[in-house]
TrEMBL record:
This is Acetyltransferase. It holds the Pfam family PglD_N. Keywords: Repeat, Transferase. The lineage of its organism: Bacteria, Pseudomonadati, Pseudomonadota, Gammaproteobacteria, Pseudomonadales. Belongs to the transferase hexapeptide repeat family.
Length: 206
């Protein structure tokens, strides 16, 4: 029996749980601060809140934080790790990850995603369905690459940034920290920290 605790009974959490089952985790419980009002997330039980998870951590072989907010996901990951929890990493069997890529703990890689050689994915990132991260990329902590987004070779993405669904990033581009790249954008030049960009080519929205 491999017991996994997932913090965050969200839609994203359902995909995390489904992916975890495909990776051989066979006992999955959710925790969410909406408990006890929220008791289930699809077929999986919600059994407590963050405080409950902190108390019950030794009963689990691993934990994942399935919270969409990059900032909160990172905060909770670090809190649970500091409390002695074992951070799991999930790579869906239908994802293709180079043996020469470095995937840090707490990251989830969903079905259809491709990660190529010499790429480094740091702690707590989400590589969502069918995205691709090509060779020599560096993806910071708690980054989210949305479904179908494409990163060319040598792209750097700073901590807590979010690349929207279907966006494309030109090779060797550096995107700062806490950046939001809009759905369908084409990023063709470097982006500073703390901005939102969108469009083709991507321009600053705010
Ligand atoms: C499995 C999953 O579901 S994973 C989740 C995947 N989801 C995503 O990737 C979402 C990405 N988010 C977006 O693209 C959002 O539209 C954002 C973050 C860029 C902007 O969101 P908001 O701040 O709410 O902006 P809002 O919708 O009010 O739009 C503001 C303006 O920007 C424009 N705009 C918004 N998004 C985009 C975009 N992706 N590309 C071009 N223009 C855009 C709007 O048309 C609007 O223009 P207007 O002022 O001329 O009418």
């Amino acid at each position: 029996m491999r017991r996994l605790a997932i913090l965050g009974a969200s839609g994203h959490g359902k995909v995390v749980a489904d992916t975890a089952e495909c990776c051989g985790w066979n006992s999955i419980n959710f925790f969410d601060d909406a408990w006890p009002e929220v008791q289930v997330n699809d077929v999986w039980p919600v059994v407590g809140n963050t405080t409950g998870l902190l108390e019950q951590l030794p009963q689990y072989d691993g934990f994942i934080v399935a919270i969409g907010s990059n900032r909160i996901r990172l905060e909770k990951l670090l809190q649970l790790r500091a409390a002695g929890g074992r951070m799991a990493t999930l790579v869906h069997p239908a994802a293709t990850v180079s043996r020469y890529a470095n995937i840090e703990e707490g990251t989830v890689i969903f079905a259809g995603a491709v990660v190529n050689a010499s790429t480094h994915i740091k702690l707590g990132s989400i590589l969502n369905t069918a995205c691709s991260v090509d060779h020599d990329c560096v993806i910071g902590r708690a980054v989210h690459i949305s479904p179908g987004a494409r990163l060319a070779g040598g792209v750097h993405i700073g901590d807590e940034s979010w690349v929207g669904i279907g966006a494309s990033v030109r090779q060797l581009v550096a995107i700062g920290q806490r950046v939001m790249v809009g759905a369908g954008a084409a990023v063709v030049g470097d982006i500073p920290d703390d901005v939102m960009v969108a469009g083709v080519p991507a321009k600053r929205l705010r």
